[in-house]
Write a structure and sequence with these properties.
alpha+beta, Beta-Lactamase, Helix Hairpins, five-stranded antiparallel sheet, 13 helices, binds adenosine-5'-diphosphate
Length: 435
């Protein structure tokens, strides 16, 4: 303002001096020219400012005269605000990214318990779709009466366990409700389906182990009591011998179960390692000796084994897997059946161990369950042949620890084919296996 007044004064002074010197009309003309040019310059500056206002990111135009004093601090303030907004936006973005990466689901609700936001994990857990469900009541999404009762409580010290079925899949969710901010609510969801399954498996396992051990233990205790309570002379030597044989049988059964349980537990607890080159044909040879003695010459064995095919692995584990499949073939194949053992390199470079039998076979619906602990198709037959119900569970574990898979093909009454295929990366090149 002072600058403008100063300019007007200068023009007025110059006009007055010229008016005195030449004549008053020239003075007035000079003053008019000065004022008009000041107005014109102001107009140009204003239009420059108008253009700048449309793009406030750029600094104000230079040479805008007195406007600079007003616009420079505005621009500085704007720039500071913009930096602050950018900083806030970055913070919000990183919080949203963190919320998106949370392994738990998070849903925020307003005071009416309507959904205001949720992270992707919450959508996966509950089926909530933020685009369509925002603003809708959470009770439309979590429709169970348990959740409604939980939400009505005054305190939510404990999470709620909810069982939901979505897309045909059952899910166990832990849901925790909390208050935050001003009359807002946060729901945290955690998928505990696997944990729940593990817990059920653990409980079943303990119950199964107890049951499996209790039966032989009861028989054993029964014999011992009988022998203890009966007078010595009332038991014949033959009877005593019979009791003794039966007790040994039951004790061996318990021993076999405990041995297999220990093997399983070692497989589960020890870290898997690559191992060293193993001549698998040697392990097959040992397993064949056991299988033949179990078969008591009642089966025909066909052996197609490549003695020069080595793989890297853990010898004791491989031995156990190889033997399990072979002895199973004997135990589930009636006499005169044929058992074919093969160990060969496939065309794709993998190594395959397979045991084919012409035995009783397995119904399709039983196949997926065979590797469950203590699962047997025919309990009686398994027990009668000394089975523990853990052999295939062990073999599956061994396979997994050797990057392999246990494949089962079978047809009821037509025999079975069990195979383990080891990846080419585990096959030892011939020159190294000779070393
Ligand atoms: P088990 O000690 O009872 O043999 P496994 O885990 O080795 O336990 O096998 C589980 C079940 O799979 C067996 O009880 C049996 O019903 C079935 N099975 C295993 N191998 C064969 C086979 N070669 N032929 C038919 N059934 C088999």
């Amino acid at each position: 303002m002072t600058k403008t007044l100063f300019s007007i004064c200068i023009w007025a002074l110059v006009a007055w001096l010229i008016g005195q010197w030449i004549n008053p009309q020239t003075g007035w003309a000079i003053l008019t020219f000065g004022l008009v040019s000041m107005i014109l310059i102001s107009g140009i500056q204003l239009s420059q400012i108008k253009r700048w206002v449309k793009n406030l990111d750029a600094p104000p135009p230079p040479s805008i005269g007195p406007w600079d004093e007003i616009l420079a601090p505005i621009y500085r303030k704007l720039r500071a605000n913009r930096q602050e907004i950018d900083e806030l936006r970055r913070n919000v973005d990183s919080i949203m990214l963190a919320a998106g990466a949370l392994p738990d689901g998070a849903i925020t609700l307003d005071e009416e318990m309507n959904v205001t936001w949720c992270n992707p994990m919450a959508s996966e857990h509950t089926g909530l779709n933020l685009e369509t469900d925002r603003g809708f009541s959470i009770f439309n999404i979590l429709r169970t009466p348990e959740f409604a009762a939980y939400a009505r409580r005054d305190d939510w010290n404990e999470p709620l366990l909810l069982h939901l079925t979505r897309d045909g899949r059952d899910r166990a969710l832990l849901v925790q409700l909390t208050r935050y901010g001003v009359k807002q609510f946060l729901i945290v969801t955690r998928d505990v389906t696997q944990l729940e399954k593990l817990e059920t498996t653990r409980k079943d396992f303990v119950a199964n182990v107890s049951h499996e051990l209790r039966t032989p233990l009861t028989v054993l205790a029964g014999f011992l009591e009988t022998m203890h309570d009966m007078p010595q002379e009332s038991i014949s030597d033959e009877q005593r011998e019979q009791y003794h044989t039966m007790m040994v049988e039951q004790a061996s059964r318990m021993q076999a179960i405990v041995d297999d349980l220990l093997t399983l537990s070692t497989l589960e607890s020890s870290p898997s390692s690559q191992g060293k080159p193993v001549r698998v044909s040697d392990l097959i040879e040992i397993a064949l000796q056991r299988a033949r003695s179990l078969s008591k010459d009642q089966h025909v064995f066909v052996v197609n084994v490549d003695p020069n095919l080595y793989i890297t692995g853990i010898e004791s584990e491989l031995a156990s897997g190889i033997e399990n499949l072979l002895t199973n073939a004997v135990r589930y194949t009636p006499r005169d059946g044929t058992i074919t053992v093969s160990w060969y390199k496939t065309e794709s470079g993998t190594a395959c161990y397979s045991v084919q039998d012409t035995g009783i076979g397995i119904a399709a619906h039983d196949i997926p369950r065979l590797t469950e602990r203590f699962y047997r198709v025919d309990r009686g037959r398994s027990r009668a042949t000394g089975g523990t119900g853990l052999g295939l569970a062990i073999t599956k574990h061994v396979a997994m620890r050797h990057d392999s898979e246990l494949n089962i093909r079978s047809r009821l009454g037509a025999g079975s084919l069990f195979s383990l295929e080891f990846p080419a990366s585990r096959v030892v090149p011939p020159d190294e296996s000779m070393a």
